[in-house]
Amino acid sequence: MSPLRLTRRGLIVSGAAAASAGVIVSGCTGARSDEAHAPWAKWNDPSIAGTPLALAAAGILAANPHDTQPWLFHIGERSIEVFADTSRNLGAMDPMLREMHIGLGCAIENMCLAATPNGFAAQVESIGGSLHDLRDRRGPAHAATIHLSQTAAPAVSAPSYRAIPHRHTNRNPYDRARALPVSWRDDLAGLAADERVRLFTFDHGRQRDGYDAAVVDATGAIIDDAPMIADSDRWFRGTHAEIERYRSGPTFETAGLAPMTRLMAETIPLPASFKHRAWLDQTRDEQLATAPMTGLIAVRDLYDRPSALTAGRLWQRIHLSATLAGVALHPLNQPMEVVDRDRQLNRGDAWARRMAGLVGGAGWQPTFSFRAGISPRTASASPRRALADVLLANGEGV
Predict the structure, then answer these.
(1) 3, 40, 127, 309: which could form a disulfide with 105 (CB 3.0–4.6 Å)?
(2) In CATH, what is the architecture of 8-25+166-373?
(3) What SS3 class is residue 304?
(4) Confidence of residue 395 (pLDDT cuts 50, 70, 90)
């Protein structure tokens, strides 16, 4: 891949589209805020070590859709209740709250990893039922309870636990000529041990071509769907004040831009139509073109709540293992977002059948999509809400 040139088209392509799905780049500075990024440094603060709060502090650093951080926690002496904060939903981009629950699963995985070094054994009890039943989108919805029992002494932490503050989504171009570590690829199958989920990966050939085409086509479909692209765009934080106020959402810093390109993207105002076209071009010409491997996580029932949590836990395990191996990862969930939109609007199942075809049918339904590779540039940390902002007091959320 040749270096980016700072032409008008090059600026549009690299500046607007390298952010996550549908992000609009608007011309204001996105300076880093120490307070907004403080949870990454304070996640294992000694003042909360050995308490359930330490688990929640690890949970808030988990992967999640559009950095919406859609979680709330009620902390008890021997349990943590995990709630979906449905008020932080992505609207037409996630009408079934499926991606929201995948993000909750990521947080649960982090909390379970944090249990052992803090002197707890953790057992997860998921709330059963279908996402179709979650019709109230204004407040907390109980998703799972993590039951905690005290152990004799804190155990040595696993490498994946120590990787938690270093795991970041990398939206930069990858180096397709650099092979992924064989040991990491060999370990992937073992991470998907739960019978409710299955991992599929693609390097080249007909299935990889079908995967790439689906991501590109779905990106175009989202751009053409005014409510979808608007609901995605509204989460972008383009100024220092917005980052400090919201402490969530994609930013210029996390968009994977080269320094000069980022500066120009922040400075030069561009029409929304150019920025959306740029996202499509970037998805096709850089994100997919430079990725040596892509993958799908599939479940049996796309809208089963426990299955969505399980898929999220798997994605978090994959991302932490990749962090340890020096592998960059980036979700590309546009096809499943269109599947959900079709379901919301009752406009058929063509997209669902297309995605099922990529995994050979047999009852598996893709729920998460990603690319993997080696990136010459490191990823930046995203803003995070403070732990105090995601804790429920007694009586809330129930």
Answers:
(1) 309
(2) 3-Layer(aba) Sandwich (3.40)
(3) strand
(4) low
CA quadruple 251, 253, 255, 261: dihedral positive or negative? Answer: positive
Q: Considering only CA atoms, which of 358, 284, 308, 312 is closest in space to residue 129? A: 308
Q: What pLDDT does residue 397 have?
A: 59
Rounded CA-CA distance 369/13 in Å is 22
**How far is Cα 143 from Cα 129, in angstroms, rounded to an integer?**
10
Q: Which residues pair with 125 in a beta bridge?
A: 145
294, β-bridge pairs: 202, 371
- Using the CB atoms, write b or e for 31-47: b if 16+ within 10 Å: eebeebbebbeebbeee
Overall fold of domain 36-162+382-390:
NADH Oxidase (3.40.109)
384: DSSP letter? -
Same fold yes or no, 8-25+166-373 and 36-162+382-390: yes
pLDDT band at 396 (very low <50, low <70, confident <90, very high): low
Going by C-beta distance under 8 Å and a sequence separation of 6 or more, which residues neighbour residue 7? none
Phi, psi (deg, nearest 5) at residue 380: -95, 155
Full 3-state SS string of 58-88: HHCCCCCHHHCCCEEEEECCCEEEEEEEHHH
| DSSP-based three-state secondary structure for 155 | coil
Predicted model pTM: 0.90
Give the start-to-end residue ranges of the domains of the chain.
8-25+166-373, 36-162+382-390
